[in-house]
Structure to design on (171 residues):
């Protein structure tokens, strides 16, 4: 499929950052930065349909025009159709993962977005049911570095939970 195994760059990224972010605006801004920085691939899974906005779709399209492979998932068939119409060359799928929406988890936490860029940067957003106002409800962690534990787990999770080839191996 679109994402084939690549060898790891000779310039090793030894950065192992993990940051916490609060609020939808800050998390959306970081997501935009990551999409703008993408060189090879973007894997983005939406757990919250309200995050699929025209500006975000424009950034995904711009990344694709730069030659970046795009894989986008959602939990909603209507959103999948919109994504496919807007990004016809992207790999688009409906995720069957109930845990994205907090179903069966019993903890009231839903994953709003899961973004992996160039296999070495990840952003995972969540909301806790009933927490704060809409702007402040979303919390996220952002990690950078190919060998960063958070990034490695996200890479492997996406490799086993997407219907397209997302190789967790060397990058």
């Amino acid at each position: 499929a679109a994402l084939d195994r690549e060898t790891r760059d000779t310039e090793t990224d030894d950065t192992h950052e993990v940051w916490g972010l609060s609020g939808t605006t800050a998390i959306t801004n970081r997501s935009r930065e990551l999409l703008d920085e993408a060189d090879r691939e973007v894997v983005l899974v939406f757990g919250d349909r309200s995050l699929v906005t025209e500006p975000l779709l424009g950034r995904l399209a711009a990344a694709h025009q730069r030659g970046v492979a795009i894989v986008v998932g959602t939990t909603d068939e209507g959103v999948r159709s919109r994504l496919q119409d807007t990004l016809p060359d992207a790999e688009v799928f409906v995720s069957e993962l109930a845990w994205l929406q907090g179903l069966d988890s019993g903890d009231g936490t839903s994953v709003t977005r899961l973004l992996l860029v160039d296999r070495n940067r990840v952003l995972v957003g969540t909301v806790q049911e009933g927490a704060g106002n809409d702007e402040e409800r979303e919390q996220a962690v952002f990690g950078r570095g190919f060998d960063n534990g958070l990034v490695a787990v996200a890479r492997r999770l996406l490799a086993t939970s997407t219907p397209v080839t997302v190789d967790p191996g060397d990058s």
Summary: Confidence is low (pLDDT under 50) at residues 1-12. Helices lie at 24-37, 54-65, 77-86, 134-137, 149-161. The first helix runs from residue 24 to 37.
